[in-house]
Write a structure and sequence with these properties.
- The structure is a single chain.
- The protein has 243 residues and is of the alpha/beta class.
- The protein has a single domain, classed as Alpha-Beta Barrel (TIM Barrel), CATH 3.20.20.
- 38% of the residues lie in helices and 30% in strands.
- The chain has eleven helices and twelve strands.
- Helix 7 packs parallel to helix 8 and helix 9 runs parallel beside helix 11.
């Protein structure tokens, strides 16, 4: 199982939010490039970088910073936030991102997922499935749709999507542990490769997610637990590598 250390960008700084609420912002660094380099030096196999400003407003205010991060590390970068069009996706992939996560637009823009898959390939595209009480949230999690997460994931699989970043919003940034039941069910029923996000607080959480690998949980995004020193990246990597 892959570990994706998270770098969430707001106003050019590295921050974490609680359940996606803008008012809960906690700043961890004014130098996201240094954070990225530290994760890479510690052995991270990937980075997960999110433009929160673009997710909330649609404006790519942190695109330049994301390009700097990509240029500063020699590991693949997965990025998302405000990916609303083929042009948005192309800009990030052309800048060196390995994979782009499409959230709101996967639900609201008919045909975008199919066009992106056809143009860039299935390894370069992930569907962001963020749920609140089982329903898909959109627009930086400020709105909740009537679409249930699992049927939406199944629809994405039917279109040719291979990867999804799945977040239970109630757990995100809360250090309450991941929603293992929901994560396993979505992976099993959708047949997607699931990158779990939200709630990881302990090494035991990582072990529990690692044990879901056979269900289709292929990776985990870890953010606040690393920034708050709950465990180190080295400890996380050893845990997911253990038999």
């Amino acid at each position: 199982m892959l570990i994706f250390p998270a770098i969430d960008l707001k106003g050019g700084r590295c921050v974490r939010l609680l359940r996606g609420e803008a008012a809960s912002e906690k700043i961890y660094s004014d130098d996201p490039v240094a954070i990225a380099q530290a994760f890479a030096a510690a052995g991270a196999p990937w980075l997960h970088v999110v433009d929160l400003d673009a997710a909330f407003s649609g404006s790519g205010g942190n695109r330049r910073m994301i390009r700097k991060i990509i240029a500063a590390v020699d590991i693949p970068v997965q990025t998302g936030g405000g990916m609303r069009s083929l042009q948005d996706i192309a800009v990030m992939l052309d800048s060196g991102a390995r994979r782009v996560v499409i959230g709101t637009a996967a639900l609201n823009t008919p045909g975008l997922i199919e066009q992106a898959l056809a143009r860039f390939g299935a390894e370069a595209i992930a569907a962001g499935i963020d749920t609140r009480d089982g329903r898909v949230a959109i627009k930086g999690w400020t709105d909740t749709s009537e679409i249930e997460g699992i049927p939406f994931a199944q629809r994405m699989h039917g279109l040719g999507v291979r990867w999804t970043v799945y977040t239970d919003i109630a757990r995100d940034g809360a250090l309450l542990g991941p929603n293992l039941t929901a994560t396993a069910e979505l992976a099993r029923r959708s047949k997607l490769n699931v990158i779990a996000s939200g709630g990881v607080a302990t090494i035991e959480d990582l072990r529990a997610l690692r044990d879901l690998e056979n269900e289709g949980v292929a990776g985990v995004i870890v953010g606040k637990a690393l920034y708050e020193g709950k465990f180190t990246l080295a400890e996380a990597l050893r845990t997911v590598a253990a038999p």
